[in-house]
Amino acid sequence: MQAPQIPTEVLIPQSFTSITQAEDHLLAQVAMKQETITEQQLEHPLIDQSTLSGMVFMGDTFNRFEVTDTLFRNCTLVNCDFTGISLFRVRFENCKLVGTTLDHGTLKAVTFVDCDGSLTNFNETKLTQVAFQHSKLTELNCWESTLKQCQFTDCDLNQADFSGTSLKHHDLSTCRFETLRVSDWAVRDCRFNETQAAYLARLFLGITLA
C-alpha cells in the first residue's frame, strides 16, 4: 500500500478549529494534536499532507470530507457521519472508529493498523488497495460495496456484514469470525482457512464436516 507523502520537516502546529475560518475549509501541511471536536458540522472540509495525533472527534458531521496524504495516530473518531468521504494515501494507526459512517465513500491506498472499527459503516463504498491489519472489525457493515486489491490481515471480523459485496480474489484466512454475513456468490474465489470453510459449507450447503 502506498504510504502518505507528508513533508514532516515543514509541518506547522495548528488547531483543527482553524478550518472553520479558512474560506476553502482547507488544512494543509499542518500538525494537529490533542483536541476534542464534538458535534461539529462542516461542508466539504479538506486535509492534505498533515498529521493528527491524539485527536478526538465525537458525533461530528463532515459532508464530502476529503483527506489526502495524511496520518491519523491514536485518534478517536466515534459516531461521526463522514458520508461521501474521499481518502487517498491515508494511514490510521491505533485509532478508534466505532460507529462512524463512511457510506458512499471512495478510499484508495488507505491503511488501518491496530484500529477498532467495530460497527463502522462502509456501505456502497469503493475500497481500492485498502489494508486492514490487526484490527477489530466486529459488526462492520460493508453492504453493496466494491473491493479491489484489499487486504485483511489478522482481523476480528465476527458478525461483519458483507451483504451484496464480492470478496472475489481476497484473503480472509488469517482473520477470525464465528458468524459472517455474506452472499453465497460473493465468496467464490475468496481464500478461507479450514475452520472458516466449514462454517461456510454449513451456512450455504447445510453440510457439517466430521
From TrEMBL:
> PANTHER family given for it?
ANTIBIOTIC RESISTANCE PROTEIN MCBG (PTHR42999), PENTAPEPTIDE REPEAT-CONTAINING PROTEIN (PTHR42999:SF1)
Superkingdom, natural source: Bacteria
Task: Give the matching SUPFAM superfamilies.
Answer: Pentapeptide repeat-like
Q: What is this protein called?
A: Pentapeptide repeat-containing protein
Q: Where is the signal peptide?
A: none
